[in-house]
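Section 4.2 – Deliverable D4.2 (structural model, holo form)

The reporting period included a commitment to supply a predicted holo structure for the target in complex with manganese (II) ion. Inputs used:
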Amino acid sequence: MPLTGRWTLTRYLIEERRRYPQASGALNALLLDVSLACKAIARIVARGALATNAAAPQAGALNVQGEVQKPLDLLSNDIFLRMNEWNGHLAGMASEEMDEPRPIPEAYPRGRYLLLFDPLDGSSNIDVNVSVGSIFSVLRAPAELTDGSRELRGADFLQAGATQVAAGYALYGPSTMLVLSVGNGVAGFTLDPELGEFVLTHPAIQVPEETQEFAINTSNARFWEPPVKRYVDECLAGRTGPRGKDFNMRWIASMVAEAHRILMRGGVFLYPRDTKDPAKPGRLRLLYEANPVGFLMEQAGGRASTGRQPVLGVLPSALHQRIGLVFGSASEVARIERYHHEPPPGDSDAPLFAPRSLFRD
Ligand code: AHG
Ligand code: MN
Ligand code: MN
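Output (structure tokens):
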């Protein structure tokens, strides 16, 4: 396929920047370095078991989440750090794989942005050759950090998702894709392996409004809260149930792949808050999983919620904070949020909302 007539990622970013004549180009340069990190990870992932050799950092340790770190988790983390620490556009980085945020080394200038990432999401899928991804979020750095008047703190990253400047993911599937938003819709790029370039193949991605597909790990059903159980029961009831239509279910166990499917053909994803472990209010991490995927969903006309409120409105309290996450087609997310706010059907204490009341739709 000739490149003529197609836009590269570089061109897309430059065309976007032209809408802001005062923009310096720093964000574009940062995103190109992030995309280079993703290309490097794509090569390693594609080599599968051939890639994990003695050169890979030692794994087997637990990360701050108490999860086993795989060799490729650590290698991918290292690639993200190395590709982005030198460019002068960042004042700090934070990752799923590092307990503490990483300051920019003294040898390099500090920039105006902060980068958060999960370098290899779904890494439990690596050993079975199922799609994995990288997911990232870009925030503005406080001015005192950029000008060097103080050192980096974890608190610098505790900004609501609505303030993200850019967010995106790379999906390492049958083809490698980069999907990103700089706040003006969502664009998808496919890696041309011969050119080594991300080429714009999916401009202006929109999440289809209606769906008949949901994604949830049903092995957790006994720990779900009633609104989630109600939602899933209604989907399972199919054509003869309250929804009046049959639903299909998918679970890849790679959130990035799940988000991509939903951006392409609609659907809803739930990893809700549950009662499995009171110390973990949800499975996924707010700052580098829920927020970037939330930004992409909202930019593509979908929605992302904790179940109770929009994800992007949550003020984070800790760098590795976990949160309940529901995202996808807007009408389904709105329905799930509504179920969280209204009394369960048949609740005799709430006669106005009882199943046969005028107040139920
Ligand atoms: P990670 O590999 O970065 O720890 O994240 C995996 C996440 C997410 O990608 C996926 O949706 C979820 O964990 C899968 O959870 P289950 O193992 O409970 O299915
Ligand atoms: Mn992850
Ligand atoms: Mn990960």
